[in-house]
Design goal:
alpha+beta; 164 residues; 4 strands; 2 domains
């Protein structure tokens, strides 16, 4: 049994299987001095990977909320959604946290190399604010082989799906 078959047969969760991520790839091998048998060539292909989500993440989801009806409702709200530039900027809590980290770093450097304050009342802390702890578990990725595909998008994706 091949590696890809093993990965795709994993039973991670009854609602989800592994996620397949693919992307187009265009590379050109350019020959600057063209001669017989030597010319520039274009490679049009596809690369991708299979990502198996962690069981802990899937167990934390409410599966009753993950269905086609909820998906369609979300798509309906997107139609009327207003996209504002401020939605892409950090909120005030994030900005405050960022400023607190900088002040902590300045205070640490000042205490270590310049002077220790005589009064600690009102002085900046040397202890940085707590951070959100991320899981140290490495993601479970399985790379797919580089695949050559047609320039025709419908035909090309068909070739990729057949190869996978």
């Amino acid at each position: 049994m091949g590696q890809l078959t093993k990965v795709m047969s994993l039973k991670v969760n009854s609602a989800f299987g592994p996620f397949i991520c693919i992307d187009n790839l265009d590379m050109e091998e350019r020959i600057h001095l063209v001669s017989v048998g030597h010319r520039s060539m274009m490679f049009h292909g596809c690369w991708g990977y299979i990502h198996t989500p962690p069981k802990e993440l899937l167990e934390s989801l409410n599966l009753s909320e993950i269905n086609l009806e909820t998906y369609n409702q979300a798509l309906q709200t997107v139609r009327t959604m207003k996209i504002r530039p401020r939605d892409f900027f950090p909120d005030s809590a994030t900005e405050d946290h960022y400023a607190a980290v900088w002040k902590t770093q300045f205070a640490t450097v000042m205490n270590k190399y310049i002077a220790v304050p005589s009064k600690t009342d009102g002085a900046y802390s040397n202890q940085p604010p707590p951070l959100e702890v991320l899981s140290p578990t490495a993601p479970d990725f399985h790379m797919l082989k580089l695949m050559e595909e047609s320039d025709n998008s419908a035909e090309g994706i068909g070739q990729v799906m057949e190869a996978v």
